[in-house]
Prior knowledge:
alpha/beta
Amino acid sequence: MERASANDVVIEFRDVSYVAPTGQYVLAGLNLEVRRGETFILLGRSGSGKTTTLKLINRLLSPSAGEVSVEGSPIAGRDAIALRRSIGYVIQDVGLFPHFTVERNIGLMPRIEAWPPGRVSARVDELLQLVGLDVQLKSRYPRQLSGGQRQRVGVARALAADPAILLMDEPFGALDPLTRDELQSEFLLLQQRLHKTIVFVTHDVGEALRLGSRIALMEAGRLVMVLPPKEFLHSTDHWAAAYVKAFKAGLDSAANRGAA
């Protein structure tokens, strides 16, 4: 595996293992590097350790062995709250506060960071436009939004304090296919503009191939390989080939349904 220079590595796992409270090994001997400005995909089936890996980055979980570093510094000795405030986090069910308006949800972290009210308001308007939402929606509550709109608000909230790192856990997984396709397109445009370092969890190989700079394939808590999308698509590795075969079968099935 090609190693990046030290200055390019933003997140690093060194021989990281995680054992669940039940005693089950969820991760074993994980070594990986996430480079500055890339969209690093964690791909794998349910139970492969993707979300656990993601949660180790912002100390929602702590490794049972090994070391996780962010910007060259081990995170074990860092204040967990301060670390989480410096990293954006987007999950599948969004996690918006239902009793907060869109404006309050997006502006939550800047307010915690004691931004002046005028700056918070301007940032909310800027982010709504950035994620393709009308600023007039800021007075609405999450229940008054569509699924796609709520997911856009979730992305805006994660970006509110301008974090350098963004963690995304199946962010588009609960959306209908058309909305998902639309948000994937918008995600690509957003990343071209912002150049964030993104770790993105998915079990969808099509999504991984479309969005990723590199794809890390995980199976049963272990890292199988890390490859750019084009190399992954043509890999002869057993696990990668199985994912690509299933992906192509899905495309053929969709094409047949469309032709029917």
